[in-house]
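User: Can you help me understand a structure? I only have the sequence.
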Amino acid sequence: MGGSDGGGSELPGGRLSRRTLLRRAGASLGVGGAGALALPEATGSHDTSDPETRGVDADAEALAEDEVPYGVWHYKPVGGEMRPTAPINVVFPLEAATFGQVTATCRRAGLAGPPLEYVRFAWDRDRERYRRQEWTAAETAVGVSGRLHVRCWKLAGTASMQAHVDTAATPKHRIHTYSGARDAVERLFREAGWTVADPVHLGNDKVPDHDGFASVIRR
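Assistant: Let's start by predicting it. Here is the structure, written out as tokens:
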């Protein structure tokens, strides 16, 4: 994401175009065409300033991190403090799945990692400390033309994901959409046989288009 808060590594055989990625994702998930990862075009952005410099929305009323088993924000270190910069927007209760199955499903859809990106952190309420991302992936290494980019943490028996679509890197990525990335991840897992349940409200609203809800996905 911002500046970019994103990055992706080349897939085997070289960098894949968006069209190639979507075609391969559809094939790997047993569907035709690009239905599994129908991403919005990232040629422009709703966001005209660097989201890393703005932080979170002033009127966001997020749940306290210790009240839920999921992450609420991801953070970056700024001047010796941790600043929330992007909302967790997809979560996975792991009662019948593992963190490895979450990441493997993303890989089979064509997301590759580790990408070129900034390190980000999430609050671990059990260990009472911030932890760096455990797994991260994107469509391409740099995302010259934009990309889907995800970061994941295993927290309190759950998986928390921050998903966004970057704009083209000109010269830095900006956020094109959070909600479009959330929808793309839902489709990816639904086509892989997972269940998308009612969303959970985390109150972490964030421009350009995140409404404070995280998708809940179960195996």
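Now, to help you interpret it: The chain is about 15% helix and 30% strand. The CA atoms of residues 14 and 76 lie 30 Å apart. Let me know which part you'd like to focus on.
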